[in-house]
Every structure is written in structure tokens, then in C-alpha cells.
UniProtKB/TrEMBL annotation:
InterPro entries listed in its UniProt record: FlgD (IPR005648), FlgD/Vpr_Ig-like (IPR025965), FLgD_Tudor (IPR025963)
Gene: flgD
The protein's role, per its UniProt record: Required for flagellar hook formation. May act as a scaffolding protein.
Keyword set, alphabetical order: Bacterial flagellum biogenesis, Cell projection, Cilium, Flagellum
Protein name in UniProt: Basal-body rod modification protein FlgD
Residue ranges annotated for the FlgD Tudor-like domain, each copy included: 87-223
């Protein structure tokens, strides 16, 4: 007696999938529809003298439920990722043209008005100052702040050199230093920068801001978003 009577469409599926230690999938991965068709084919083609036991049948149904659950999870994750990317796009469009405060040592300065920024002082110091350099690396100014307590300390530069001459607008570098523990040490500066454009993160990656005079920086590094 033949035990391989066919069910429409199942023979081709049985040919595509092999089960064993070295299972090879031809084409797409085994999904819930293919799994169900294989299960039906197996039931139709079982040996009537040795029918499949209930325990084996229940185990295969459990595997089917697992496959279906994984597909639903993948679909949900794709929906979440799509929503996150849409949120990134909206967030990006709102940031272009605005100023942000970021950890940096360079900034585009309009010397016709007072430049405002801050530095991070880890401990109290008797002497805090900020050296200012132009785009060629030449020292053009200094902001003396005297004694300061630990914390985020604001400072201002009037855009003038040591002789009181107003310097041209452009990109300037700010080097903050302080004397403590018997040494003069460098400090982190937090400077304003204009958002020229943004780059959306790929596959859920971080949104990158392209800042004037600074370059590309991750959104997570932004300390303050201005107007």
C-alpha cells in the first residue's frame, strides 16, 4: 500500500525543506503557513499501522505556535522601528536652523555681539581662564575669570583682542584652563553652535547633527537646545 498520497501543494514544500541535524532552507525561511502545510502533509501521509502519538502532535503544534509568535514579534518590531524613524525625521526637521549647546572647543562667532558659553570645573580653583585662538591658531584674546567654585561656569567674550580691537567674525577655538591641585589643567567647554543639517540614523541609529564650525555630533551629546 502506498503511504505517500499527495495533498495539493504539499509535495513541493516537502521537497524544499529537510529536517535533521543539517537542516537546509531553500529560498525563504520556514514560516507559519509552510509549517502548517508540512504538519497537514505529515498527518495525511503517516503510516496507518503506526499513527503519530498525541505527544508528538502536541509538540509540533507548540512549534507552530512558536513560529507564529516569532513572526508577530518581527512584525511588531518593524512597526516600532518605522515609528521611531518617523519620530527622528520630525525631530530632525525641527532642529535645523536652531542653536544647541554641545561639548566642543570651536565655535562660529559673530564678534559684533558678546559670545556666551560655559566650562566645566571639576573642583574649586583660584585661577580660571579661557584662551581664544583664531582659525590660524594664533592667540587673539583671553578671558580671566579668577577664583571659581566647582560646577558649570559661564563665561563671555566680547570679540576683541588684547588691544581692544574688534576681530572679524569667524571660527574661533576656546581653551579653558584652571589651576588646582598644584597644576594648571585643561577643562571641557560647552559652546553654542548652529544646526546646519541633520543625518538620520540608519536602522534605528542615533540622529547626527551637522553643526557649523564643529562638524557632526550625536544628538545624545547635546546639552541644551536653544531657539
Amino acid at each position: 500500500m502506498s503511504t505517500t498520497s499527495g495533498v495539493g501543494g504539499t509535495s513541493s514544500i516537502l521537497e524544499q525543506y529537510q529536517f535533521g541535524e543539517d537542516r537546509e532552507v531553500k529560498g525563504n525561511d520556514l514560516g507559519k503557513n509552510e509549517f502548517l502545510e508540512l504538519l497537514v502533509a505529515q498527518m495525511n501521509n503517516q503510516n496507518p499501522l503506526e499513527p503519530q502519538e498525541n505527544g508528538e502532535f502536541i509538540g509540533q503544534l507548540a512549534q507552530f505556535s512558536t513560529v507564529e509568535g516569532v513572526e508577530k514579534l518581527n512584525s511588531s518590531m518593524e512597526t516600532i522601528l518605522s515609528g521611531y524613524q518617523s519620530s527622528q525625521a520630525l525631530q530632525a526637521s525641527s532642529l535645523v536652523g536652531r542653536k544647541v549647546i554641545v561639548p566642543a572647543d570651536k565655535a562660529v562667532v559673530d564678534t559684533s555681539e558678546t559670545f556666551k558659553a560655559s566650562l566645566v570645573l571639576p573642583t574649586s580653583s583660584s585661577n580660571v581662564f579661557v584662551n581664544v585662538y583664531d582659525s590660524t591658531g594664533a592667540s587673539v584674546g583671553r578671558v580671566n575669570m579668577g577664583a571659581q567654585e566647582a560646577g558649570n561656569i559661564s563665561f563671555m567674550w566680547d570679540g576683541k583682542d588684547s588691544s581692544g580691537k574688534v576681530l572679524p567674525p569667524g571660527t574661533y577655538r576656546f581653551e579653558a584652563q584652571a589651576t588646582y591641585q598644584g597644576e594648571t589643567k585643561g577643562l571641557y567647554t560647552l559652546l553654542p553652535a548652529n544646526v546646519d543639517s541633520v543625518t538620520l540614523g540608519q536602522n534605528g541609529g542615533e540622529l547626527m547633527l551637522n553643526l557649523a564650525g564643529v562638524g557632526s555630533i550625536g544628538l545624545s551629546q547635546v546639552q541644551v537646545i536653544g531657539q
